[in-house]
Design goal:
Layout: H1 12-62, E1 72-74, E2 77-79, H2 112-116, H3 154-158, E3 162-164, H4 180-196, E4 204-208, H5 209-217, E5 230-235, E6 240-244, E7 251-252, E8 255-256
Antiparallel strand pairs: 1-2, 3-4, 4-5, 5-6, 7-8
């Protein structure tokens, strides 16, 4: 016995409704998927900073709380920079700037032994110092508009996505320009020991590249992880956090770029402090 069955087809209206529903679902889900992906990158970035903090703590124990500042001389300049501590080779562009004082190869950077866990060669990468959301370097055109720079990530430009906080050491009253390395080593030892007794959980020791430019220029911009004025920070006590920062300030709730003990006030006279002419304040 044979039977027959009439096929049912979608009408044009029904097909358009289905397409519209699919398009709506995609428009709802895509931002959530992008956000979830960025959350994963953020977690990786914070993990990088925690590992960097651990490596630094190990170094400080072995070197009596002296941070590995590198000083280079070239063409009348003496340079100490915030990316010399660790990372891969800087871009060749830096060989010709200021006599090459900001150019470093992988094996020159003291913390790499602790970060990588082994000796590195001159051209070896240091992947744990690359933020997965690194948007670009702010160092080449520091005095110009950053959006006019060449499209280099900070990792490819200066060898690391993360800066060490040198802002807390500038304008010190006892800084000796003829002996910058010793001056800054002495200041760091004081800073670190002060911090362990009071403000280590608030002191920003490492941070993503955009923060360095923002703090210096007193501006707020989009962070690496695509949120306005929100950045990944590694703190002196070893923890890392992703938080909103008003980078027009030196200090705010939950973070400081300065040693609070070095700010002059009426009832305290520290051994090391910012000069009278300094614009730095936590007010």
């Amino acid at each position: 016995m044979r039977t027959s069955r009439r096929l049912q087809a979608f009408t044009l209206i029904e097909l358009l409704v289905v397409v519209a529903i699919i398009a709506l679902l995609i428009s709802i889900l895509l931002p959530a998927l992008r956000a979830a992906k960025e959350q994963g990158k953020m977690a990786k970035c914070l993990s990088n900073l925690k590992s960097l903090n651990t490596s630094t703590a190990t170094y400080l124990v072995e070197y009596d709380d002296k941070y590995p500042f590198l000083a280079k001389n070239g063409d009348g300049w003496v340079g100490i920079c915030s990316w010399a501590y660790g990372g891969k080779k800087t871009d060749d562009y830096w060989k010709d700037q200021y006599g090459g004082i900001f150019y470093f190869e992988s094996n020159e950077r003291p913390l790499n032994l602790y970060i990588v866990g082994a000796e590195v060669g001159p051209l070896d990468p240091v992947p744990s110092l690359q933020c997965p959301s690194d948007q670009g370097s702010y160092q080449r055109v520091y005095d110009e508009h950053p959006w006019e720079q060449e499209p280099f990530t900070a990792y490819d430009d200066i060898g690391t996505s993360y800066h060490y906080n040198l802002h807390g050491f500038t304008d010190l009253s006892d800084f000796d320009p003829m002996k910058p390395k010793k001056s800054w080593e002495r200041a760091h030892t004081t800073l670190f020991r002060d911090g362990l007794n009071g403000f280590a959980a608030r002191y920003a020791m490492y941070f993503e590249d955009p923060v360095d430019w923002c703090i210096n220029e007193k501006v707020q911009i989009m962070g690496n992880h695509k949120q306005f004025s929100t950045h990944a920070i590694g703190f002196m006590d070893g923890h890392a956090n992703y938080l909103f920062m008003d980078t027009r300030k030196w200090c705010d709730s939950g973070w400081t770029f300065l040693n609070p003990n070095w700010l002059k006030h009426d009832d305290y006279t520290p051994k090391v402090y910012y000069t009278d002419s300094s614009h730095k304040t936590c007010d």
